[in-house]
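Final report, results section. Input specification for complex C-07:
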Amino acid sequence: MDRLESEIRDTSKGMTPIVKTVVRFVMGIIVIFGAYIVLFGHLTPGGGFAGGVILAAAYVVLVLAFGRELGLSKMSNKAASILDNFGALAFISLGLLGFTGGWFFLNFLPKGKMFDLFSAGDIPLMNIAIGIKVTASLFAIFIALSIFGRVIYKMSDLDDSESEE
Amino acid sequence: MILYFLSLVLLVMGLYCLIAKKNIVKKIVGIVITEYSINLFLILVGYRKDGVAPILLKGMHHGELVQHGVDPLPQALVLTSIVIGLGTLALMVALCLRMYEKYKTFDMSKINKLRG
Amino acid sequence: MQAYYPLFTAIPLAATFLTLLLAKITRRAADVMAFLVTALLAVMAVRMLFEAPFMYTVGNWKPPFGILLVSDGLSSLMLVVINVIGFLAVIFSLKYMTTYTAKEKYFALFMLMIAGMNGVVITGDMFNMYVFLEIASIASYALVGFGTGRRELEASFKYLILGGVASTAILFGIAILYSLTGTLNMPDLAQQLELIGMTRAVSFVMALFIMGFGLKASAVPFHAWLPDAHPSAPAPISAMLSGVLIKALGMYTIMRIMFDIVGRNALVAGILMFLGALSMTVAGLLAIGQSDFKRMLAYSSISQMGYVLIAIGLALNPNAELTVAALALIGGLFHLVNHAVFKSLLFLGSGAVEYRTGTRDLGELGGLIRKMPVTGTSVAIGSLSIAGVPPFNGFWSKLIIIIALLKGGYWIYGSLAVLVGFITLFYFIKLQRETLFGKLPEALTGVREAPFAMTLPLVILAALCVVMGLGYVAVEGSLLEAAKSALLDKLAYMNLVIGG
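Structure output:
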């Protein structure tokens, strides 16, 4: 608890303590909401891509409030890359497993009853794979661009003349 | 009818922004507006007057969706198109930042090393 | 083999992500993976040449509801071109890319580009073609700017913006087609468009498609990205872009849409012939004054694509007799295959020269045939083929196109084609004189021959030039007949969805 209090009181990195306290509470809700949209993709609008974007947004809020070092310590660049590739490989193997039924991308798992959570064959599994991939990809893009931003901020301190229009 | 016309106005605005502005970031905004205007046009193609959303609720019959629902196929196409636009936008912004690192300016008329 | 048709896109897509995963363990895994996957794809593509035309339903959804994969003569021909030249480019990159960092990301993007191009040629559904077109295009935008110097980034950005506008125009056309007919399946679209006829909306869609796909194929008003993008890319990527990508994404899609979906139409044929003639002459004249090795080759690519466009335009004309149209189509397809072979040979040769001497400027090179004999001979064979000198393959394809133009009664276009042939000969002789023959400058006295991994693809491609030139009759009978009949017979394409 001491480390968290010191993180919140530290005003040199990230934003003010009010923002940090609120984000600490809100981030869990955003993650649960994103996971709900991914898992119920075959019953309500949404699905893999929309849920993945919301999960990545939870992570972006964390980095904005607490600073980049804490964000990178939670999920490093290497972990994001591994999750990204794993999600894409899971999606392709679900398509290739359709060959057991005879056709590419065939829906080969039992379909179940309508309006149930565990129904519609392999569509929820594909939604989960896409959700993982999109989360990891958007996180990696955000971190890469924020590192660039630091370089350019330092560079633009040197010369002030920038042409607009 | 007016809605189709407005989406074409968005397309022309995006193209104007792409052609007439010299700042690279404004050109990127122009391309994004153009792509989104086409997504809007694609959704409007599937619209039906006084239609309901194409979601099958419990206790509803299939025939109701066929008669009253809007067309769900363009919505699936637009989802794919938005993802493609996101990929292109990420690549454009990364290239724009790298070019600032090398050329020290965002002005497109100064970035003219390749000629002839 | 019919059941494994979707593997042409599934295998390279899986290889992309597997390469990135395995490269965290050992760095050599990327090379091995790329080599094995492209070898497998090349073998599968050659095997597909011997199959009868068929249709594959993805996920067992019956057409016109599901996505359809179609295999006929034209798709098989394009698959062989894409995968075999991809395999040779991968062999070349094994040694060439050691001068760049992040080799595993290069191979991952390369696999993604091949997956996209394969997807464009095998699919029979309009929106699926758009998705794979975007996959291949985005991978190529990233690959053009791979060595992140100033010129590469500027070229990649220009290519990105122009390609993005073209893709938007294509999507607009697809949206209007869907609202007119209610289906996205290509054989079904052919049936519906016959009922509708050529209204103003369909003409607008044709204009949008000519603009969008013409930009991908680099026809002349839309060619401005090519002379910047192709020289800045690493040499094997220039070979893939100039040799394969502008054909698979631009020429194949124009042929498929104009022949099999819309049918023969005099207005579109006239426009395509005019654009082809414009490309031939403007790019040919601009290529004479270039001093950069790869930039001259890039302008020459635009010029040769003009030849193919003019042949396609002639075959599309409903007023031309069927024999003239068939002749023009055979000439155009043969020139497409030939150009893939000798343009990738020339770009890979320029890469070998740059690897050893460190420069691309024609003023600084000279007399290389004494120091690099294998590379020099292959580049000489390639230049002679593209200029249209008799025993090589370029002579036959240009001759057939010129004969078809003259037989069809187009005297102006025919004489323009002959004139551009002479211009091509002129600047390629200039290229050979500046790089291969002549005096060896002081700075280059220490160069040796290029490594084996780089000369092997050059030798194979040069041998293909000679063999396809001498054995022209065999090539025509086996490959081109199937492709030509697949295009001219629209009824067979439409019946694929009913009978299959």
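The first helix of chain C runs from residue 7 to 22. Chain C has one domain: 2-499. This concludes the modelling results for the funded period.
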